[in-house]
Specification:
The complex is a heterodimer of chains A (339) and B (596). By secondary structure, chain A is mainly beta. In chain A, 14% of the residues lie in helices and 42% in strands.
Amino acid sequence: MNRLALIALAPLAFAEPAFAQAMDPSMPGMTMPAAKPPAKPGTPSPLGVLPGVQAPAAPSAPAAPAMADMPGMKGMAAPATPKPAPAEAAPAEPEIPQTPSPPPAQDHAADRDYDPAAMGAARAQLRQEHGGATLSMLMANLAEYQAGAGGGYRWDGEGRIGGDIDRFVVKSEGSGTGRGGLDAAEVQGLFSRAVTPYFDLQAGVRQDVAPYARTYATVGFEGLAPYWFDLSGALFLSTRGELLARVESTYDLRLTQRLILQPRVELNFAAQDTTETRTGSGLSNAELGLRLRYEITREFAPYIGVSWDRKLGRTADYARARGDDVGGAVLVTGIRGFF
Amino acid sequence: MKDFDRRQLLQGATLSGGGLALNALLPAWARSATPGLAPSLPTLAGPNIDLTVSRAHLSLDGRAGHAVTVNGTVPGPLLRLKEGQKVRLSIRNDLAEDTSIHWHGMLVPFQFDGVPGVSFPGIKPGQTFVYEFPIIQSGTYWYHSHSGMQEQEGQYGPIVIDPAGDDPVGYDREHVVVLSDFSFTHPHTIFARLKQQSGVFNFQQETAGSLLAGKDQTLPERTEWARMRMDPTDISDVTGAAFKFLVNGHGPRDNWTGLFQPGERVRLRFINAASQTVFNVRIPGLKLTVVAADGQPVRPVEVDEVQIGNAETYDVIVRPTEDRAFTLVAEAVDRSGLARATLAPRAGMSAAVPPLRERPLATLKDMGMDMSSMSMGGMKMDGMAMDGMAEPGMAPPKARGSDVMGDMGGMKMSMRDARNAPGVRMGPGVQTIAPMPKDRTGEPGQGLESVGHRVLVYKDLVALTADPDPRTPTRMMDIHLTGNMERFMWGFDGEKFSETTRPYTFGKGERVRVNLINDTMMTHPIHLHGHFFELVHGPKGFGPRKHTVVVAPGGKVTFDFTAAPGDWAFHCHMLYHMHAGMFQVFSVRPVDGAAT
């Protein structure tokens, strides 16, 4: 019976009651026709305005045999051409107003059928699982060996945990040599808040471990600038009143899907001369790096590159006066990764 | 671990993922070389159906994975029901975590809709929950978990409901074709990666290499898009790099095969059960006659390719007359992989698998900045007018380099102007507001504009029968689909569900027109539970009635619906968008005729 080709028969009267039941026919005082009578003869039908198909008068299928041997249902299928704009056939609709929605209900519908306490717990979980997740990330942008006299190492990384807007962030960077130990090392603990689609505002504490123990209050930003530059900047005010600043930016130039060239710049500034830390006012230090990484996975990418890291200006004068190296270019190799 | 798990594991180990082992892990309808659905097959039917949700192993293209299963298989068993019957579904939870089953597209009382926290508390470990409701519709539907991310892990299956009377669709044989995506990576890890770096799974980005090769965007286009921080290759968040694309639980190498006799009319019931993948479906050599969308019969439309959004279903008739095999291709919309199956007269046959086509690039239109629809010399060129120029799918390829805004005749267009979306909360979760959202339901889906053959568009769909509610809506509302692709935040009207303070509210029986406005550059298949809504195009009352609608990037979809009492989930059916917050509740009161 079903096997008869009934395709495209339009028993308008036929499927109607089934759909109508969805409308909760038991509902009293309803303004809509809960069980709309089957379409009256003469009801405008789209079939009438479509080419090539006649709506049969009754669900019984006089046309079926003819269709049964119609290869690929040619002639039955609407030709794949633009249909006459149906809106033209329909009378213009009255303007529908954007009136306000009803006030929110004070109840939860399911509490009628289930234990409200269990529903409350399920609702809390629902919110948590639909936008409320707490997530974390540990990222090592630099973790490298630096060729040169004796060989050195350098790291620059960040960890974060929290939601989309508010997070706790830990940043650390530093460098050293195998023989000499730590040249520089610092760690920051920050509260971070997303304030625009691309930028987070961050505030917290920075603790320098080397070369000089120093504690700073810090405020800064981190995000994605136009043209896809990762950009961050911060001001640091030490417990002794010294003011420092830092700007960092990286850019990922995608050579292939996995081979990425990353220029990087980090500039450190000081507002004053500080003899104790041998920091001069102005631009005190700059790192320009160019690193080529291969993303075995996005999360794990070994790299090689070159880094020009140098003390500048009065800070360089301090170093030279003490007979210290002011820095220069070195070849580097390391791992960039996150999880 | 349950007994049958152990047996399956042993079989899997012995036969190392061979076809036989794979078949043992699948329900009969989903096994390869199946003759199709037949009453003799052990599908689940009748008034009492028992389902068990548990962890089990599955095998895909010879690789073993862990899955959350229904009755031990992925997909779960086919439920074959009959319009007019009553059904009692007992779900036993053998997991160590909560589970649930939502009957997708089915009109059920809200308390049996299966969404923990909205319609019921969920099913605790060890508990059995009984759903009981009358079947008041017919067509192709499906079921899936609404707990955690179990849907990604395999907890889904098809539902076929036979009409009470004659089927308006004639066919000699039928196959259910469940499309899905499976990852050997845990969905929570996938989600965490997306939050860490939203392009983490995209290995089809624009490169310096492609620029030098004269491919993809030109330098001026790239510069402009880079200034906007918009990635035109961001088509799918999760790609073939993390997914295997499946047909009826079979990987492309497993090659699920459905049998036919030449000359037969074969009804293919397509269900997109994928967590995050929109598929482009075609069967080279065969025309696809679409006869139903989301379970509801439509006037037949003959096309060559159908884009199927997550959670949509399409019934398609094919009529292979030759005695040969045909390849069924379901290409991921970003062309990062495909699901493949075969229709053949006999088992063991196969046909050529077409190579993946070039991945699409998002355009300014996908940001709701389409210049071509602006009035030019007083002449409005909207979607319909454009359709007149070329049939959907057959447009000439877009000229390379045409995707720059230029100076727009002195007009400044803001990508994030709050005045273009008064109801939206403008926080960090809103990256863009489409300045000129456009009805794109007459356009082919992303990447199908110029494929050289006819593709289905929503405006092709005309309901076979009139909407049971003929009233004109009494009010209209806008819902903006918003997000931030960089932060992987998604929501409605600028809010993640976790941030919302009130649901969308409706009066019981109220007929309302809803405009879904996609302010993002991503596709969002939006699903409303417990209702069919009528897309507002075509003759009034004959718009297709759907439960899920794909809202194209920068696009707008308008539908009318009649609010049924209860609380109903409303969400993007991209699982990771939903999990990130693109979820809300439609609260319809009063629940009964009592106090208002």
